[in-house]
Amino acid sequence: MTAVHTVLGPLAPWLARRGPVLAHEHLVLDLSRPDDRAAVLDTDRDAPAVVRELTSLREEFSLALVIELTCRGMGRDIAALARISRASGVPVVAATGWYHQGFHPPEVAGAGVEQLTGTLVREITEGADGTGIRPGVIGEIGTGGAQPTEAEARVLRAAAGAALATGLSVVTHARRGQGGRAQLDLLTGAGLPPYRVCLGHQDLLDDPAAHRALAAEGAYVAFDTIGKARYRPDADRLRLLLALLEAGHAHRVLLSGDVSRRAYLQAAGGPGYGHLLRGFLDQVRAAGVDEPLIDLMTRRNPLRFLTGTEAEA
Where would one find the signal peptide in this protein (predicted)? Predict the structure, then answer.
């Protein structure tokens, strides 16, 4: 395996073998809008609580890595991620890309695929936001519906081009789980192998057949909103996950909680970053899933995904 690029430098994958990986989280972001001012994880106000949670998970579960998917236009602060990583002792992978069209910065409008690809490649090879810190993943590349808009399609093609040029993998945002098939078709149509694609938020889509089809094609299927009861109860997520495992696709599953606003932090009474490890996985175990499969989903899969390694069958 090649090294994983974290905000504190390259991390040999064997160093992350001691514990689980959170495959889709946010540590700092700003998705606030006039009708929703609370979609924020603030660098100053919230960072101490984030550090406490990550430190606790490192001490209790040997948390090995966090894949942080706040990209351009989402309030990304890579320097803050480095401070959080250093303070908590947990390696963090930063991201580059663009979210769905409602959050595209002005740079996307009118820019061609080649220009957008160049922007991503420069960040990946030279560092982002003047920090010299290199993103280690492309995402979360967003679409807001079953089919991407014209601008979202350009961004997806740019993500594929940058992934092919740099060796990084691509994580998508599929709103409410919709649009994963269109995302995968567009990315693979641009030449990106499916095992370098993670389709986001599939636990919000109650369609086991769709999950099976995406996994069978070779893409990673993310159950990454675990604990977000306002969207779906975890009992539904467990049912959908077990169906995917029973179909033989454990090697295509990634798990996380997608903490994306202050209200989800433990300090604010939310499930926090540890809900997957402290709560949901106990339900998975109680359903009969053994430790090797849990290790596959929470450690081996995300490491192979990040390093662009073909997944085991």
Answer: none
Alpha-carbon torsion (177, 33, 139, 62), positive or negative? negative
Q: Residue 204 to residues 64, 78, 154, 200: CA-CA distances in angstroms? A: 26, 28, 25, 9
Pairing type for strands 29-30 and 4-6 reads unpaired
Phi first, then psi, for residue 47 (nearest 5°) are -55, -40
Residues pairing with 199 in the sheet: 221
Output the DSSP codes for 112-163.
-HHHHHHHHHHHHHH-BTTTTBPPSEEEEEEESSSS--HHHHHHHHHHHHHH
Per residue in 191-242, pLDDT tens?
Answer: 999 999 999 999 999 999 999 999 999 999 999 999 999 999 999 999 999 9
CATH number for the domain harbouring residue 196? 3.20.20.140
Count of structural domains within the chain: 1
- The closest of 132, 181, 191, 201 to 159, measured between CA atoms, is 191
For 274-297, the pLDDT digits (tens) are: 999 999 999 999 999 999 999 999
* Element at 281 (helix H, strand E): helix 281-286
Q: Which residue has the tokens 């893409």?
A: 219
Say how far apart CA 39 and CA 246 lie, in whole Å: 36
Please tell me the pTM assigned to this model: 0.97
Partners of 6 in beta bridges: 9
Residue 212 maps to a domain: yes
- Name every residue whose Cβ is closer than 8 Å to that of residue 61 and which is 6 or more positions away in sequence: 19, 20, 274, 277
Within a domain: residue 311?
no
Task: List the domain range (segments joined by +) for residue 237.
Answer: 4-306
Q: How far apart are CA 243 and CA 223, in angstroms?
A: 12
Domain assignment present for residue 210? The answer is: yes
Nearest to 214 by CA among 172, 173, 249: 249
